[in-house]
Description:
By secondary structure, chain A is of the alpha/beta class. Helices cover 37% and strands 25% of the residues of chain A.
Amino acid sequence: MSLLVVGTVAFDAIETPFGKTDKIIGGAATYASLAASYFTQNINMVSVVGDDFPAETIQQFNDHGIHTDGLQVKKGEKSFFWAGKYHNDMNTRDTLATELNVLMTFDPVIPQSYQDCTFLMLGNLMPAIQMQVIERLHNRPKLVVLDTMNFWMETAMDDLMKVIKMTDVLTINDAEARQLSGEYSLVKAAQKILKMGPKYLIIKKGEHGALLFNSEQVFFAPALPLEEVFDPTGAGDTFAGGFIGYLARTKDISFENMKRGIIFGSAMASFCVEKFGTERIMNLEQDEVDERVQEFVDLVQFDITLV
Amino acid sequence: MSLLVVGTVAFDAIETPFGKTDKIIGGAATYASLAASYFTQNINMVSVVGDDFPAETIQQFNDHGIHTDGLQVKKGEKSFFWAGKYHNDMNTRDTLATELNVLMTFDPVIPQSYQDCTFLMLGNLMPAIQMQVIERLHNRPKLVVLDTMNFWMETAMDDLMKVIKMTDVLTINDAEARQLSGEYSLVKAAQKILKMGPKYLIIKKGEHGALLFNSEQVFFAPALPLEEVFDPTGAGDTFAGGFIGYLARTKDISFENMKRGIIFGSAMASFCVEKFGTERIMNLEQDEVDERVQEFVDLVQFDITLV
């Protein structure tokens, strides 16, 4: 029983209305693995970095119970780098630089020790690589969660549709759900997307929360109203990592348990945005996680008895 | 024990991506009174119309248990008229026409039979008129709910601040909360606004739900994800009417009960947007209201036991 997390491990340079960073640690697999590590222990990472990537960070992954046998370190090459600047509303951003570097030739290797994978988190990556990972696993995982983005809808739609068909839970944001379905109404968009293959769809709406759909039910979890959103980078990956980490811990993939997973994922995301990069989710205490989840309970719970 | 609703009773002409209306019935007091009528019976309306306003509509108000002794009908004058066009996202709109007509000289009269007012809903109007209504009541109501808009922040800020100070619950949208407080973060905005006088603040976020704040607590209610939002006109007033109508029925103004009020208000607003104008909320069955509230329960309820 293990959780496999596949995605980028990278450098980011981030500018927000609150400040600016030099190159800091980022990447979808980084955020997702760290978030999952607060819920489950047997986490395996598949990714690629250059030899510019700090060994101390890999050690920090290991300290969080994240195995890095599948994290390839390419000699003489550079890690993936992304630079972006958020607008004042913190909901939109401009990409200032994207240097693919090692990602250009990424060929995911699944170590033998990873083959007991029961939960698979496919972070945002080229759809063809996401598909390769599924194909290279000897047994199909119990649950495959796929994250993707608008860029692949524009440049690799055929591959994307194939890999979406192979997944159980698709996570995208509201604009991407509209783009993928051609429907403005998120309810109609969800109905269309669920017909493309996935049994569950999570639509992430950033500060406006997240929706979970299956063909018959819908659940909504708000984002926690925060005094300050400092840096939204990685919030979606952190959400997904908390979600699948909770499912992996409880081994229950019912709709009811996915609701709880979404609350735990939202709690992790609410930490993520409080500081730059991975700073906040690198060093959380279990008590803090529990308190934050309780804040979500308090935020939405009400008691109505209909006569 | 009665609920007094003050606000416009008017004609609207509405254009949305789904269609266009001629002059139809609108106005804040119209929507709020109708919504409240599904929860409480002793509703008194204060407003003004011209003699172009249909007697059948006034009869419909009465049929909903809404008393219209305080609805002045001005001979030879025309009712307030607003025309607007919604953009494709349905969240923004252009005003095409505003004809104040009878509103220009509106002097609110409180009939003696209305003086037992315990719940007061002040719909969006000139702040000076909202204040006059409070002053013309012999006893201060148990709860005063005030709705306002950005226009008064720009043109009548002094009067607005005075009337805000006299209210218990202020309802505004997210952009207005930011404008009134000068804070982007809604949490910080709420803290500042609560220092201006009101004990409770409701921030309406349209399709993204509503937040209820007091100085120590926060509660969030989502909007129901709908297949189609047909016409958002009046949704905020309908929400407020459902909210105060529920409080008037239960006579309980605790934070816990306000949470329930917000759920009932949100349920009423979700009906409002399904058709043009007042069409949907003019003819609801109690069963439909109960079913809709149950949908809200199903949408957000989850069960987490923290160990």
